[in-house]
UniProtKB/TrEMBL annotation, chain A:
PANTHER family: PROTEIN ABCI12, CHLOROPLASTIC (PTHR33514). GO terms for cellular component: plasma membrane. Pfam families: CbiQ. It is a multi-pass membrane protein. It is found in: Cell membrane. The keyword Oxidoreductase does not apply. The chain crosses the membrane at residues 21-39, 73-97, 109-131, 152-172, 247-267. It comes from the Bacteria. The gene is ecfT. One of its GO terms (molecular function) is transmembrane transporter activity. Belongs to the energy-coupling factor EcfT family. Transmembrane (T) component of an energy-coupling factor (ECF) ABC-transporter complex. Unlike classic ABC transporters this ECF transporter provides the energy necessary to transport a number of different substrates. This is Energy-coupling factor transporter transmembrane protein EcfT.
From TrEMBL, chain B:
One of its GO terms (molecular function) is ATP binding. Keywords: ATP-binding, Cell membrane, Membrane, Nucleotide-binding, Translocase, Transport. Belongs to the ABC transporter superfamily. Its main location: membrane. Pfam families: ABC_tran. Residues 5-241 form the ABC transporter domain. It is a peripheral membrane protein. It is found in: Cell membrane. It comes from the Bacteria. GO terms for cellular component: ATP-binding cassette (ABC) transporter complex. This is Energy-coupling factor ABC transporter ATP-binding protein. It comes from Periweissella cryptocerci. The keyword rRNA-binding does not apply.
Amino acid sequence: MIDKLILGRYIPRDSYVHRMDARAKLLLSIAYIAIIFLAGNWEGYLVMAIFTIGVIHLTNIPLKVYIKGVKPLIWLISFTVVLQMLFSTTGVVWFHLGPINITNDGVVNGAYVFIRFVLIIMMSTILTLTTQPLAVADAIEYLLMPLRKVKFPVYEIALMLSIALRFVPTLMDETEKIMNAQRARGVDFANGNVFQRMKAVVPLLIPLFTSSMKRAIELGDAMEARGYRGGEGRTKYRILKWHMRDTWAVVAYVVLVVVLIGLKYYLPVGI
Amino acid sequence: MSKIIDVQHLSFQYPSSDVKALDDISFSVEAGEWVAIIGHNGSGKSTLAKLLNRLLVTDTGDMTVAGLAVNDENTWDIREKVGMVFQNPDNQFVGATVADDVAFGMENRGVERESMIKRVDDALAEVQMSEFADREPVRLSGGQKQRVAIAGVIAVTPEILILDEATSMLDPQGRREVIKVIRDLKARMGDALTVLSITHDIDEAASADHILVINDGQIVEKGTPAEVFGNGPELIKLGLDVPFAEQLKAELRQLGVSVPAEYLDEEGMVKWLWQSSFNK
């Protein structure tokens, strides 16, 4: 089940992007989503696409993998693109049927939306493919630190996040086991209408829930027995290190922003 | 030698139950000893372990652990000195990787990162898990996870190691590995480490210096493994196993062979069989 989903998987490699600081990667991935809206014309999108493919090349993971990551979302993308095309009212009308007008602006905007979607998904995939979930959790903890000033329980959230991540595969295993156990007793998970299927999930969910409670209690005991008393006063074994390569990545982004702004606001004037 | 654990007239009752889980128990453990506590399911063994480091709290009875009275004030000091390994290898694995899990106890104590890195390495080497330092728990066997749990305890250098059925969910191979690690550790640390192992496993109990047998919340027998296992039939009545050599003796006895009454370990039993067939 989890093997089909590229989004959220980590592929260990040795590459420039893999060695980058998780904080840098997280921040830059978020920045990317803002930056892509700076691209307002063909040239802008071309620069963005070249940039993205360049970064993908730096990850040492074949482009194929990223395209596979986009595939599950292709329906959502197509739906948005089609809506965009159908409901644009400006520009030269190319095709006309009842209340629907397909205009050249509509088609162009649709294409932009398509490219924007694909690029954003690819960039988010870069983050998850090249960064261990744990490092992402650490990065989130670091970025939330300022919120401690307003009494936000950053340490606790970070611990919850890392324990949750650590238990995902364990719980997947257990789900599989319970499913098989219930199948062996005659529960049919795969067939029937919506209601029958929903009912079939109950003998899976309830054991999973009770066993999670049991796990939580035992984990709590084990943590206390090992001296856990809350976040304050703890030291950290894992730390994140900011390297020169992270600074370079930020510089590359700044250059990208400058180029995009240049293309958006000054290029049309020049032509 | 001094008493490192001293328990006097301890009783405990779970709020949800109307029988006492432990009923007026008294015993003591000398520093450096290895004591096994055996008893059938629900006999109160695990409850006892949790009372010792105050994961459970009782009103009646006096307990001293590592020179500290077990009370509210000393809770955390006691936990500093008592390392505990629980039954389920998955549910006590806090860290996302092996090294993180070993470091968890030290992080809680505010150990400097530099010395933490060294102690993690040493502790993993001690349990022969060094090459697994970056692995996630899903990719380890049960025995490996328990060895990591032991490494996490070693890293904070406790005076007392409590094994709360640490081998009961393992396959025979994992069980042997874990017992070997504990034996090696005990051999290295000598009197600096007291081991209290709560167990079903007869091999584990046979490694101990002393055995306490608990039945329905009361201590019914104390003694060396030889003394306790010498009463084979009694143990079976309490729902416990006896070592293989004792089982063999019982079978032979049924076939009319006159076997020695005293306890023999496997080696002793082999020697005796060897000699007796010579005499024929």
